[in-house]
Amino acid sequence: MELSELSVVVLETAEAVVMRAMVELETLTRRQPDALVSLAAGETFEPFLAALDVEQTAGRIKLDALRFTHHDEFFGFEPIDPGGLAHELLGCPALAKAHADGRFLAIPSGGSEAILREHEEHVASSGGVQLQFLGIGGNGNVACCEPGTSFEFGFHRVELADPTQHHIASRFPAGATIPTEAVTAGPKSILAAERVVLMATGASKAQAVRDMMDGAVESTCPASLLRRHPDAIVLLDSHAAAKLYWPHN
Q1: I need a surface site. Which of 146, 193, 195, 197 has the fewest CB within 10 A?
Q2: Alpha helices, H only, 151-205
């Protein structure tokens, strides 16, 4: 597949990254109020979810018809399960309302291969994901696509790498069993989204960002797949951008 010109915006602070991402969502809601948006959970997106509720409460963004889904979930976790990724997303009142209204499509995290294919078909028949939000892990993973994931994979069940398990341990109380598997959108699923917005903040993401932008486009750095997407933007704060080799926008 031909590589695309990946747009990169470097902003001074993490707060500025969040607000620039909010512009992406607000622009979509004006163009297509009932679009399907796929969200990410985790530390990078906690401020985004907080800002989403503030912006809706203030009337600066309209979410009443917007539909939501998410790109990964720990294996066997339902939206009601604390520590789960959907559970975190639904802690945002705007998303909780979408869930209550039937506008939140949860991943069938305990499902078989056939059920995952049904999920993909449901997403496609709903018009597909118009806006896909992504973060990036320290090892270059996106969603739960760990290094080595084939770019041909759609939604699939995956064993979480040791660094990922270590990272997610803080989501659970001491002594709790840490998930070792997840269900995730694969590279093929991510590339099917109409537009992709990747957010990265903090110095801990700087090496992964450099690998994504300046390394080879290959499965050793799953995030590099964005360079195959025709309409993707990377939003970085100054710390996450610190190791880039060449000037970006």
Answers
A1: 195
A2: 162-168, 187-191
Q: What is the three-class DSSP state of 131?
A: strand
Residue 80 counted as domain residue: yes
In the numeric block, which tokens belong to residue 47? Answer: 């401020």
CA 43 to chain CA mean position, Å: 11
Candidates 183, 156, 177; CA nearest to 165 is 177
Strands 7-11, 104-105: parallel, antiparallel or unpaired by DSSP? unpaired
CA–CA gap between residue 53 and residue 97 (Å, rounded)? 11
Model-level pTM greater than 0.90? Answer: yes
**3-state DSSP call for residue 195?**
strand
- Beta bridge partners, 159, equal 181
Does residue 2 sit within a domain?
A: no
Give the pLDDT score at 5.
Answer: 73
The one-letter amino acid at 138: G
Over residues 36-55, the pLDDT tens digits come to 999 999 999 999 999 999 99
Percentage of the chain lying above the pLDDT 70 cut: 97
The yes-or-no verdict on residue 34 having pLDDT over 60 is yes
Q: Which residue has the tokens 């809601």?
A: 29
For residue 170, give its domain range: 7-237
> How far apart (Å, rounded) are the C-alpha atoms in residues 65 and 81?
26
pLDDT in tens, 110-166: 878 999 999 999 999 999 999 999 999 999 999 999 999 999 999 999 999 898 999
Residue 158 main-chain phi, psi, to 5 deg: -140, 145
Closest to 68 measured CA to CA, from 115, 101, 114: 101
Residues 132, 97: contact at Cβ < 8 Å?
Answer: no
Number of structural domains (the chain) is 1
